[in-house]
Specification:
Layout: E1 5-7, H1 8-15, H2 19-27, E2 33-35, E3 42-45, H3 46-57, E4 71-74, E5 77-80, E6 83-84, H4 85-88, H5 94-103, H6 116-126, H7 135-148, H8 158-174, H9 188-196, H10 203-215, H11 223-233, H12 238-249, H13 257-269, H14 274-285, H15 301-309, H16 315-326, H17 334-344, H18 351-371
Antiparallel strand pairs: 1-3, 2-3, 4-5, 5-6
């Protein structure tokens, strides 16, 4: 296997310096440089760069970029370990993608199955709450219950964490109140479907739901993922890591935005002229929920792919299509696509948030696995005090 190398830009970013400083390090013998096949591009040994970065930090809090092998957003596309997430969605199971994120191998035979005792415990804990709580509100309770039943929860050995992740994702879905009878060994998408809608599952709907889980499995260093990595840096166990992610995801500027978008689009669909709702919203707040994503100026590929797979027509879908046709610069983001999915299949309130939370749990655990290999407590910034003398 060829030795890993970094380009000048990657090296400068990891070291937190300018490109000129990288070349100064070369002249001082701190880094060695080779040329790529094109004869022009400079390449630097990844091991040397990492060692120099660690030496420069000398125990200081992490302040530069966080190195990850998991996810990158590049040229308008989202990639998991080098594979296009939009291509994986609808063609690969969510179970296989969890394996890709956790182990680096796309395992089509991967399964997510919970143990009967843990499943029964979690169901008993959430039962008194189920009548007045949305599915997403029950997830932290399920995670806490599962943690109490796992005597190995503090073991962060990679193999143990992967096993924990498989069982945890399964029980997070299996312990949710179900509208339909499903077995604990059916695909996770089928079991989640039963928790989100009373409609009988159909092939297109389940495929779209599974694709949504894949598309939302990770998204670089989103706010909840940074919270997760900070928790993992303290060597918090995987259940605590996921609970941390769920807490951050619950913010209206993050995961909870999905329900806001759904309500807006449903209200717009009830008007004779949906564009009137857009005009009013822009006048009041300056933005339109469900449209635009700064990380994808030319359009959110997650939304594009999910909307391709939701084939059931409905008022909200028609509204999204009409708004895009009337104003081509309006590009739906993944929250709008989740709203279309939820409305198309009569899913319960909070369905979009639940889908995002279940999908993103796979990414959170992948980031925890990476963080467990780093030095502990590396995220410890100091405040810049501006209070009373």
């Amino acid at each position: 296997m060829a030795e890993q190398t970094f380009t000048t830009a990657q090296t400068a970013r990891l070291l937190g310096v300018k490109a000129e400083t990288v070349y100064a390090y070369v002249s001082r013998g701190l880094l060695s440089r080779t040329r790529a096949a094109d004869g022009r591009t400079s390449l630097f040994d990844a091991g040397e760069v990492r060692r120099l970065a660690a030496r420069n930090r000398r125990g200081a809090p992490e302040s530069g970029p966080i190195e990850t092998t998991l996810t990158v957003i590049r040229d308008g596309s989202l990639y998991y370990r080098g594979q296009d997430a939009a291509h994986l969605a609808g063609t690969t199971t969510f179970e296989a993608v969890t394996s890709l994120l956790w182990t680096g191998k796309l395992d089509d035979g991967a399964t997510l199955v919970s143990s009967a005792p843990v499943r029964e415990l979690a169901c008993a804990v959430v039962r008194p709450l189920a009548g007045h709580a949305r599915p997403v509100d029950l997830l932290p309770v399920i995670v806490g219950a599962a943690a109490t039943a796992d005597p190995l929860r503090y073991d962060v050995d990679p193999a143990i964490v992967v096993g924990t992740g498989r069982a945890l994702l399964a029980v997070m879905v299996d312990a949710l109140p179900s509208h339909l009878d499903t077995g604990p060994t059916e695909p996770l998408g089928v079991r989640l479907w039963a928790a989100l809608t009373a409609r009988e599952p159909d092939e297109d709907g389940v495929r779209a739901l599974g694709a949504a889980l894949v598309l939302l499995a990770d998204h670089d260093l989103a706010s909840s993922t940074m919270a997760v990595r900070t928790a993992a840096s303290t060597r918090a166990h995987p259940y605590a890591v996921v609970a941390t992610g769920l807490g951050a995801l619950d913010g209206p500027a993050h995961g909870a935005a999905a329900e806001t978008v759904r309500r807006f689009l449903r209200g717009a669909a009830e008007l004779d002229d949906p564009m009137a709702a857009v005009v009013e919203r822009v006048r009041d707040t300056g933005d339109v929920p469900g449209f635009g994503e700064p990380l994808y100026p030319d359009g959110d590929p997650r939304a594009t792919r999910l909307l391709e797979l939701v084939r059931t027509p409905g008022p909200v879908r028609s509204t999204v299509d009409d708004l895009v046709a009337a104003r081509p610069g309006m590009r739906p983001n993944v929250d709008a696509a989740l709203a279309v999915l939820a409305e198309a299949y009569d899913m319960v309130p909070g369905a979009g948030e639940t889908i995002r939370a279940i999908g993103r749990t796979a990414g959170w655990l992948a980031h925890a696995l990476e963080e467990y290999r780093e030095r502990p407590n590396r995220f410890r910034p100091r405040g810049f005090y501006t209070g009373a003398p």
